[in-house]
Design goal:
alpha+beta; Aminopeptidase; Alpha-Beta Plaits; 2 domains; six-stranded mixed beta sheet; four-stranded antiparallel beta sheet; 10 helices; 24% strand; binds zinc ion
Length: 401
């Protein structure tokens, strides 16, 4: 029997009612709603996985600075559902949501109205978890099994803090030497299979000068004026990159200076100036090399001493930032999802957990209902029609009989 749209909507709503705001996005409204972070929903999912017949359920605490400082639990949760074959596929859904402090709608009521489920996380990305739970429930009632063995993952720390849950999942899979055939990362993609997006690095550059009275500038060394040279050099690097013919649909790599800070008063030569500079990485580039090049540009262009630091937490292997994620759109999973959703494969302008999964599975795809443009807004909802379409896509993928 096909799973009902009501059951899909109810299950998504139930997940919305469990607050799971990323600890870096906390605020008074989130704090008043219950424990901060992903722990409550991870424990709920572990219980649900057991009820639904998972043969293995794991709560896997992800170590990070936030849990070290505050004692907030941040577990990934894994549920394994044995299929008719031992071909292993993974659905990875991040359990954290962005902030609710700017919402004009009740963030956690999970109300069902106007053909939609409303609340923070409904779209990004509890819809995918809710539909998978509803399907597993239906399959259990009908005594059917999926063809592949399915690992359902709820991962922490996607919205902020550097994809720590995804990095930990990668390690966990490595520790067990699991061979993953297909890995589907859930995000709002309008049910179009995404087969690539850019990676990135971000650094902070600080120019160190000497303060002096601005009436006697020659007694000092002006850090802001020196930084102007650095910014000009990054602009030149951006223009150079636009002349490199792109290898894929992802287009060219780009460099942007996005924050600047410096100076202490109108009559003081500034002793320090800081900027944030980031580069979006395309296939063929290596994140560590891009990182090194950005640092070299700062040192070579500044007339004053410079220090640089990465703004992204290093990956377990020490990599700063992320390579791009890209596979040609020719795989089975891309084809099955596009056919059943009636959409076309495409690439995305935004990054996802897929940045941590390069080479981890034979096929890697990002896929889910709704538009990313509607995520992180003052209201959030997902259309129940899209949940039903997603259920049909998962069925086409997992072929339960
Ligand atoms: Zn998301």
């Amino acid at each position: 029997m096909a799973v009902s749209s009501e059951r899909c909507a109810d299950t998504v709503a139930e997940l919305v009612r469990i607050p799971s705001v990323n600890p870096l996005h906390r605020g008074p409204i989130a704090d008043a709603a219950g424990p901060i972070g992903e722990a409550a929903i991870a424990h709920h999912l572990a219980d649900r996985f057991r009820d639904l017949g998972a043969d293995e359920v794991v709560l896997d605490e992800v170590a990070d600075d936030i849990s070290d400082d505050t004692g907030v639990e941040r577990p990934n949760v894994y549920g394994r559902f044995v299929g008719r074959t031992d071909r292993l596929v993974v659905l990875d859904v991040h359990t954290d949501t962005v902030t609710v402090e700017h919402m004009t709608d009740p963030p956690f009521d999970g109300r069902i109205a106007d053909g939609r489920v409303w609340g923070r996380g409904a779209l990004d990305t509890k819809a995918s978890l809710g539909v998978m739970l509803a399907l597993l429930e239906q399959w259990r009632a009908d005594a059917v099994e999926p063809e592949p063995t399915l690992l359902v993952v709820g991962s922490v720390s996607e919205e902020a803090g550097g994809l720590l849950g995804a990095a930990r999942l990668r390690q966990w899979i490595g520790e067990r030497s699991l061979e993953i055939d297909q890995l589907l990362v859930a995000e709002p993609t309008r049910l179009a299979p995404i087969h690539g997006h850019k990676g990135g690095v971000a650094i902070e550059v600080t120019v160190h000068g000497t303060a002096a009275h601005s009436a006697l500038p020659d007694l000092g060394a002006n850090a802001i004026e020196a930084m102007a040279h650095v910014i000009t050099a990054y602009e030149a690097e951006h223009r150079r990159l636009q002349t490199v013919p792109p290898e894929t649909e992802l287009g060219t790599s780009t460099v942007s200076v996005t924050t600047i800070d410096g100076g202490t008063g109108g009559n003081v030569i500034p002793a320090e100036c800081r900027i944030t500079v980031g580069q979006r990485i395309v296939p063929g580039q290596v994140a560590n090399e891009v990182h090194e090049r950005l640092i070299r540009i700062a040192h070579e262009s500044s007339p004053l001493p410079v220090t640089c630091r990465s703004l992204l937490p290093p990956q377990p292997d020490g990599t700063h930032g992320s390579d791009a994620f890209y596979q040609p759109p020719t795989g089975d999973l891309v084809r099955v999802l596009a056919e059943s959703a009636g959409t076309s494969p495409t690439v995305a302008p935004f990054g996802t957990n897929a940045l941590r999964y390069g080479g981890l599975a034979r096929e890697l795809v990002v896929f889910g209902p709704g538009r990313i443009d509607d995520a992180h807004q003052a209201t959030e909802c997902v259309a129940i029609d899209d949940l039903t379409r997603l259920a049909a896509c998962y069925e086409a993928w997992l072929r339960p009989t």
